[in-house]
Specification:
The structure holds two protein chains of two kinds.
Chain A: H1 2-6, H2 9-12, E1 14-21, H3 25-38, H4 45-65, E2 74-81, E3 85-92, H5 111-115, H6 119-127, E4 130-136, E5 139-147
Antiparallel strand pairs in A: 1-2, 2-3, 3-5, 4-5
Chain B: E1 2-7, E2 12-21, H1 23-37, E3 43-54, H2 56-72, E4 75-79, H3 83-91, E5 99-101, H4 104-115
Parallel strand pairs in B: 2-3, 3-4, 4-5
Antiparallel strand pairs in B: 1-2
Classes of the chains: A alpha+beta, B alpha/beta.
Chain lengths: 148, 120
Amino acid sequence: MTAALACRPEAVGMRASISLRNDMADLRKLARWLADEAAPWSLPEGTLFALDLCLQEAVDNVIRHGFDTPGMHRIDVTLIRDPSAVRAVIEDEGRPFDPTRVAAPAANRSLDEAVEGGQGVALIRRFMDEVVYENFGGRNRLTMLRAA
Amino acid sequence: MDISIEKQTDAVLTVHLYGRLDAAGADAIGLKLTAEAATHKAGVVIDMAGVNFLASIGIRLLLTVVRAQKLRGGKVVLLSPQPLVREVLHATGCDALVAIHDDAAAARADVEAALAPAAP
């Protein structure tokens, strides 16, 4: 009975994971992985776009700013499909960083200010329904939820 | 990501972009886009109809070209972004920094007007 249930992903929620390196080239791998894994889930176009966008922004941020020491670091990404929502969880052992506490960029920024960046966190806020940051045992965990 | 450039005149050009304007996309087209559209005064229409994904790094690339033309006395407008890409432009306040058109003729007229000498 238990084995039969475990064979039916819809009975236990659908889940997929990938480990990335702190290398910009792995952002492409992340996008391809998301497209492949989420394809059978029949998500609305807007939900898939939001997941793609927010994963790119959050992982880009970890790769660029997350690590003080050079060398290879691992970033784990997990996608969980529940009946009501999709959650994307990003875990890394980089510098503690809570994007939910970053002030949103001013709405009326000048061109010079906008060219400097800072839009990533604004996009995550806009395209996700809930964002939770936790840090325990030196690990960052960012959970982004979007209602399906 | 692909890019093609259509020169209407020496000073007016349309840049067609196709694909994902994410980190890899910006990397693929950044040099060509800035070389063609940001190094001399011009009216530039960036046709976004073929762009199906836009991340913040792509926004920064687009705004770099917008700023370069503003400094040179030229002008950049965006043409026909897809709905989700438009939402990204709106969420980041970019739609307040660069004009967005849905009609190619209107887009071209906008950049041409900006290049015209001011009335005495």
